[in-house]
Write a structure and sequence with these properties.
The protein has 5 helices and 16 strands. With about 270 residues, the protein is α+β, with helices and mostly antiparallel strands. It has one domain: Jelly Rolls (Sandwich).
């Protein structure tokens, strides 16, 4: 990440690095997604393959196994997909934000099939992370295929990362996927921008940035691969959530005293 790109990240809460990954890498991850949802590859321990709520409730009958799946969560145990979280270009981009000691804290493949609602209201990812400081946490989100408004690209509110963590709630929609919470009272923010991307383009964003996505109104899928990273010296908030359910993994550097992987029972492998 250049100094100018880092400045834009600090100012707006996000920055896009175009063409960060090669077509061959994207194809490999796309193929692995299909193999996992079709049952052609073993699913590692801890992976969650999440059906869309409209499929789960019988409102939509998918015409293929992949058409039923909203996302694949926690893929770090998969030897093909974990190459994304370990990719040198990705780590080089996030290190100015996290520092040299980097922990992978969450990752997912977003499938976003056509024919379902699939919206995610504007929300802040910090809601899901029981540690701080927020400025040492960052998300990466890479388009595996062309992403535009028709197939439900990301919507972002520039500068919203300078606010506080807002209360979140389920939106008042007929069909809402599990844990697709929205920031209370935000709605369709007038300052939101729609982020159209080409395969390999990667957006990095702050965990307090308001972001979401719309329906996929196309005939194809809107696929992306994403991960969250944090500085190894981030500290858990006090309370019962301190023993985080997810198993975090050190990607670069060393375990830091009192940080996310110390003591080991708070996560890691």
């Amino acid at each position: 990440m250049t100094p100018e790109q880092l400045r834009r990240f600090r100012e707006h809460g996000y920055v896009v690095l175009p063409g960060l990954f090669e077509a061959e890498e994207l194809a490999r991850w796309n193929e692995r997604l299909l193999a996992l949802v079709r049952g052609d590859a073993p699913r590692p321990k801890g992976m969650v393959v999440m059906r869309d709520v409209m499929v789960a409730k019988g409102a939509v009958a998918p015409d293929s196994p992949e058409a039923a799946i909203a996302k694949v969560q926690d893929f770090d145990g998969d030897p093909v997909l974990r190459r994304y979280t370990e990719h040198p270009a990705l780590l080089a981009a996030i290190e100015p934000i996290t520092g040299p000691h980097i922990v992978a804290i969450h990752n997912m493949l977003i499938n976003k099939p056509p024919g379902v609602d699939g919206r995610h209201p504007l929300h802040q990812d910090l809601l899901y992370f029981p540690f701080r400081p927020a400025d040492r946490i960052v998300a990466s989100w890479t388009a595996l295929e062309p992403v535009d408004r028709r197939n439900g690209c990301l919507a972002l509110v520039p500068g919203s990362h300078r606010g506080e963590l807002l209360p979140h709630e389920n939106p008042d929609w007929e069909f809402v996927n599990l844990a697709y919470f929205g920031a209370a009272g935000v709605g369709a923010h007038p300052d939101r921008v729609h982020l159209e991307m080409q395969p390999g383009d990667t957006v990095f964003f702050h965990p307090l940035l308001l972001h979401g996505s719309g329906r996929n109104r196309s005939q194809g899928f809107r696929r992306a691969i994403s991960s969250h990273f944090a500085a190894a010296d981030c500290r858990f908030l006090p309370g019962p959530h301190a023993g985080a359910a997810r198993r975090y993994r050190l990607i670069r550097g060393a375990v830091q005293p009192g940080g996310l992987l110390d003591p080991p029972e708070t996560g890691g492998d």
